[in-house]
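Troubleshooting: if your tokenizer reports a length mismatch, compare your output against this known-good record of 320 residues.
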Amino acid sequence: MSDEQSDTGTGWPEPTGPSRPTGPAAEPDPRPDAPDPDETAPLRGEPRRAESGPDDGRPDGEATVDLTRQAAAGDDPPPADPPPAAPAKKRMSSASVMIAVLLALLGFTLVVQLKTTSTDPTLSAARQEDLVRILSDLDARENRLRQDIAELEESQRQLASGAQGREAALEEAARRADELGILAGTLPATGPGLTVRISGGGKSIPASRILDAVQELRGAGAEAMQISGGVGSPVRIIASTYFLDGEGGGLVVDGRRMTGPYSITVIGDPATMRTALNIPGGVAASIRGDGGNVSFEDREVAEVSALHEPITLEHARPVS
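Known-good structure output:
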């Protein structure tokens, strides 16, 4: 150690020569409660350390210098960045899956129904009024069938009632005989109905058109019918009645020759039967398309007075 250096007590020699120039002394803090710089200044030769906080793995001298610089600059340490949030996982609940399946089934059902409806050319060409009438006719037919079922059930109960069984059986037998007589054409019939007049407009009407009209009336609930022409007596129409084209025009109905125009008197619901004949593409439309004409007349009381000879059965027998 040279003469110009002396021990400072910290391990480092201190030069004994001229002292280093120092800057101007710091001005005192004008605040009344400011601490005394001499009291807060660390002792010479004692390193400044951080008051709190764990060691970050750097050497003691380096951490002391960083904290000393930050304290001298008056800056607070930067806050630590928060960890990135994990992305939320989208989960599809069982209710969402069920709703999606139901919507898919509903869409498939609507498509199938639309395709089924569009494949029926008759209903697709019908007007809204005709569709409403057809629906009303079907409802009326259902009501009649339900009423018939109720009457048959009541008859069954009466037949099994005991003392009144014989009298009820006789009444039921008489009622069934009258119904069968009307259906077989051996008894006259009366009731509300309709008169259908068919003319060919100067042309002969083929027998197939008349047969189609009879079938439509039967399907609409006709209970008794007879047909008459321009000449001759009316003919009762039953299940075995046949229609043929006559020579030189006209018709042959059950062996009797008739000429047009023709009138069919039928007992049943007038509105239902008229709607059945007026369906687009049906009997009335076909006759009018050939140049003919079809007219209707409602009857509060229609009379079917023509009779058919009883049919003698040769082979059929009732089951005992």
